[in-house]
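Office hours follow-up: a student asked to see two folded examples consecutively, so here they are.
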Amino acid sequence: MRILLRKQCSRARSGAGETGRLGAAAVALTLACTGALAPALAAAEGRSITAVSFGGSYAKASVKAYHEPFMRETGIRVNLDEYNGGLAQIRAQVETGNVNWDVVDLNAGEVLLGCDEGLLEEIDQDALPPAPDGTPPAADFVAEKTLDCGVNISIFSTVYAYNRELFPDAKPLTIEDFFDLEKFPGRRGMQREPNANLEFALVADGVPTEEVYAVLSTPEGMDRAFRKLDGIKSQVVWWETGAQPPQMLVDREVVMSTAFNGRIFNAQFLEQQPLEIVWDSQMLGLSYLAIVAGSPNADLARRFVAFATSTQSVANLAGYISYGIARRSAMAFVGRHFEVDVDMRPHLPTAPENMTKVVFEDFEWWADNQDDLNERFAAWLIR
């Protein structure tokens, strides 16, 4: 740690006077170099937390956006672990008393369930950093509902994408096109879970986006969604991790696939792949950072969550992957991608031009219905 700090101090002195997008970290580094933070850094040396993410390009973006700046500023090491989502592994750790994860990236519905089950620590929202202009965090976060056990880190979108090279003439433009095997023949990729698939199916069957959950709440509406999925089931290749859809499209294993928008963006611009996103009827979801109940490093984990969900960290994340901004104040700091010359703002799911037809995930509805629908979906898959 001391060797690393000496190198950073040397760079900081040589670049004195320059400003950057990591202003808070730069200020902290300057204080550390003058000795003002030496006691705190010395106390932090040798301490670490484990942060768990979804892997792939999202995990890499998280490391660049706030893991590495946090380590530079505090001296606390962040060890990255990866998983495919869900509460099963967290539940097993908490129930056995063998907790080795500290901070986990979860979707909103999972945070609700995990909090109700006592799997997650409560987080004092008032202790989070305010916006640069002093706006309290509660007024700065975009999410309308505050969750007791999580802090919103990003807004992601489930979309569908296609390989441009496979569509030299007419191209898919709507969610109806995804379900139209006659007009656009070929295999489809879909995630092996009911979430988003049921919503897409109903919108493709003519249900207005704002009525999706009201329809899904009826037995007839649920049957309708599964009937629509029946129409393409024979042509579906099921995926389980976010890295699979872009690879399936590049390999031409499928002609279209549902996917997380950030994964497609990275394939498009970092890997120069001929992929195209269809924003029609995109499904917006919220990603949260949560602390596992019984974490042996809960105090460090709270510092990490506060740092990661600050205005600058949220803006940094959008500089590495095209996920939406969790804090209103962060939008002013979003510009071009840190590694490729691309303006990030038009590629965010929350960009006005991408929001003309949107399904807003009802995470409370999913928290109430997830278990039952997982069972029904699993039975439908093998039917």
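And the second, which I mentioned at the end of office hours:
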Amino acid sequence: MDSHRFLGMALSFVPGTDASFVRHMEEVGVTVEEFFSTPQLELASRLNIKYAPFLDKMVRDEAIQKAKKESEFMERHGIKSFSLTDDDYPSRLTDIDKAPITLYRLGDANLDAETMMSIVGTRHSTAYGMSYVRSLVADLAPYFPDMVIVSGLALGIDSAAHEAALTASLPTVAVVAHGLNTIYPAINRDLARRIVASGGAILSEYPSGVTPYRSRFLERNRIVATMTDAVLVAESADKGGAMSTAAVASSYGRELLALPGRIGDEMSAGCNKLIRSQKALMAGTAVEIMSMLGWQPKSVSAAPKQRDFFPELVGNEKLIYDALRFNNEPMPVDALRERTGIPIHNLMASLGEMEFNGMIERLPGNRFSLISY
């Protein structure tokens, strides 16, 4: 690690410093080298600060020692840092009010890729939301082979987004709320390993040893919301982390999309609210999203084609799925037969197959609904 990068990281260990302070340093012409080498009184004068504890030489020296310890950890594990004072700091984050002073990256993903999308959503995802995410990423991949998918490594929609990117051979970035000496949740350690091995990255604003607390997940969300051009909320209850990510994305002018769901479905309530309040565009097919965002395909041999987001469902199963998807309540067999037009013996056979495959559930009164996980 070169000296400038090292000192940029050291600045993040100085208590009381933040992005606004770094920008103030740049405005008054104080470099990170000068911050750590200039006598306290002279530094205070150049910064137009009467007194601040973090200007004490002892405090600055302690930050240097912490940075040395962290750099040793980074060298052992192949981690790279990006600080606001570095030229290669992710460009989309540079103007964010609360941009991290330093980011730590394990892996090689391009954090300034031309096409980047964040996909977020509830941990309690359903087959509907996960199928949509898988199909959307698969459809976008042929047209944007260098596209980077960003999410938060949580269970549910986040994991589905990362897995979809891996399946489509796209790099994916997992932004975590803790130091890179561990992975949370532990069940996603193998997923994290595959993300890094496939050319993606694990990204954090926290040095090693920092543990995941509730407030840090909210802090993490602002990075997910702003380091890409567009944020898709695939499924969310009326309140939750995905909704906070959506709010941040909207406040910084990022394109916000939400997957519509059935009225009354708890895990679609947040998405429907975003669409209803006109804070988010209604997510649809890959072609529709490309048009809404003004994305021009980088690799395409023919005009983009519309595609069904549930390719595994055809014929009678597709008719049944669509009927259940857009109905507010579980549907009895007679209502399904009337809605789909499928003969009763074929309908019962398809219902049995879909129930066996975990797509639908049978409720009392011989009623059926899409299954939620």
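Two things to take away from it. The radius of gyration is 24 Å. The CA atoms of residues 44 and 50 lie 6 Å apart.
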